[in-house]
Amino acid sequence: MRWTDAQRTMLREMGLRLWLPGTDAAAAEPAAGPSSRVAGVGALADPVPTPLSVKAVVVAPKPAAVAAAVDSPRPAAAEATLALDWPALRAAVASCQACGLGASRRQTVFGVGHPRAHCMVVGEAPGEQEDASGEPFVGESGQLLDRMLRALGLSRAPAVPGGAAGEAADPARQVFIANTLKCRPPRNRNPTPLELSTCQPFLERQVALVQPRVILAMGRFAVQSLLGSEEPIGKLRGRLHTWRGVPVVVTYHPAYLLRQPADKARAWDDLCLAASCLDTVPG
Ligand code: URA
């Protein structure tokens, strides 16, 4: 399969170089900015997502510590969260003081995107810029995430010019982006299991309201929160998992990809797997 000009442009935006069979590496297309050369030619030579039917559905085993945090009986407040509509959920997040992070955050970071997006992205936790802006993934890793999504024809922005981020946009071309934690951990430290489990009902309700056809779980804390697994990303990616009946694709966190650009090719495979769960492959 040959790449179209649009696909070449998109992959360049992701920082991926095309290295086509039979071409000399030195003659491969240059990528703009810091980039990785695509090592697995086969993986990137065919951009058509793998059909869902050929992928195994795997539910990862949960280590005891994570399982205890994720599966323990829900407090009444958590049960109540699972009945909230969007405005009530947003208000509940904004006023939450259920864990210590409420004391140090500047503001909560609820999530952004189409409320019925077919694809939902779950990241880790707000960083400094997100804590300041109130929107997830606005820093450097967010810019990479946007380029990755754009490569699939997806965006967090309303597709209708001038339209509010809402129902007017096409849910097949929009994503909803949320984090496992809605508050920034001080100095960007890792989320604790208790913080993850305390915040989980918010994420769970977001998923229930969005009803995505696929969830892209980015990084180990998204995986811990959704799948209750502490397996490395490299062992979990490449196949479909499920959470509450929703297909989950595990992939690297964009911040990791900025440090390890060679893994962008694998991340592209993961995006293609996620796209295979969508009715219409965006393009
Ligand atoms: N990393 C994340 O996982 N989420 C953000 O919102 C920002 C950086």
Task: Offer a quick outline of the entry.
With 283 residues, the chain is α/β, with parallel strands linked by helices. The protein has 13 helices and eight strands. The protein has one domain: Uracil-DNA glycosylase-like domain (Uracil-DNA Glycosylase, subunit E, 3-Layer(aba) Sandwich), CATH 3.40.470.
Q: Would you write up a description of this structure?
A:
The chain is an alpha/beta fold and 283 residues long. It has one domain: Uracil-DNA Glycosylase, subunit E (3-Layer(aba) Sandwich), CATH 3.40.470.10. The protein is 38% helix and 11% strand. The chain is built from 13 helices and eight strands. The protein has a six-stranded mixed beta sheet with strand order 3-5-4-6-8-7, sandwiched between helices. Strands 1-2 form a two-stranded parallel sheet. The protein binds uracil (URA). The site of uracil has 13 residues, from helix 8.
Question: Which terms summarize this structure?
Answer:
283 residues; alpha/beta; Uracil-DNA Glycosylase, subunit E; 6-stranded mixed beta sheet; 13 helices; 8 strands; globular
Strand content: 5-15%
CATH superfamily: Uracil-DNA glycosylase-like domain
List low-confidence stretches: 19-60, 159-163
Distance between the termini: 15 Å
> Mean of the pLDDT scores?
80
Return the CATH topology: Uracil-DNA Glycosylase, subunit E
Structural class: alpha/beta
In this entry the ligands are: uracil
Portion in helices: 25-40%
Mind summarizing the main beta sheet? Answer: 6 strands, mixed
Question: Which sequence of SSEs, written as H and E, runs from N to C?
Answer: HEEHHHHHEEHHEHEHHEEHH
